[in-house]
Amino acid sequence: MNPLISDQVIVNGHRIACGTQGDGEPVVFLHGTPSSSLIWRNIAPRVAGQGYRAHVFDLLGFGLSERPQDPQVDTSMSAQVEILKAMLDHWGLERFHLVAHDIGGGIAQRFGVFHPERLISLTMIDVVSYDSYPSPRTRKQMVQGLHTLAKAPDDAHRRHFRDWLLDAVHDKQRFTEGPLETYLDYISGWIGQPSLFQHQVRHYDPIHTMEVADRLPELGQIPVQLIWGADDGWQVVDWAHKLQSAIPGSRLTVLEECGHFSPEDQPERIAALVLDHIEIARQSAA
Asked: Which of 223, 226, 261 is nearest to 242 (CA)?
């Protein structure tokens, strides 16, 4: 189902699906919602092929990782920072390059503010920030009540989220013919559907990014790159400019014909930008 996942490990008492490939300086990839590390399948191998070791994992409550039954288990962005730290310990990584998408960027912002010494470079792609989420469409849906949404008929649920996911890409035909059904499988069915609302949607709360919003300028001590889809309707480009203004020295690239799931629309271009940024960071540190 996901060519990047090759292992299952227990960290902080939970089963996490993960994988690595390549050799060299470590590059860690953080996915977003409603997604998984599947979104890196056309990027991580390209990075690994250029002399780096790519590390991916599915966040707790996402993809092929554990979906905790206990509603007290926290799978918010703040809690996922601890999962990230546990995975870094598992892999034996002290310093690394970090690439993050969507809510992965919220996790990255918190990690970067609290642990800047561990980041060699940071790339954030169509990420949440400040109070940029949930999107108006998601906010409208949440008004119906998560309990009600979790119990919707499977065909209605899949139909709704098929349209929702297609709204995140520019090239809808390629996405439909490619990974769309796999993304839907992860968030549908008797496990996936309630998990989507318990572990993901329930935590669409800007508190996790607003808590560090005033400290974003501190990320200027790290080489930071921002990549954005020009057609992103979930996190519009205005948020990219706000982030760039807040982080001294950060660079922004806006990609045409590219939606919120930009790693699906422009994987070759994003891989090249990630590699360029890593090389710039290495030269700066030399």
From this structure: 226
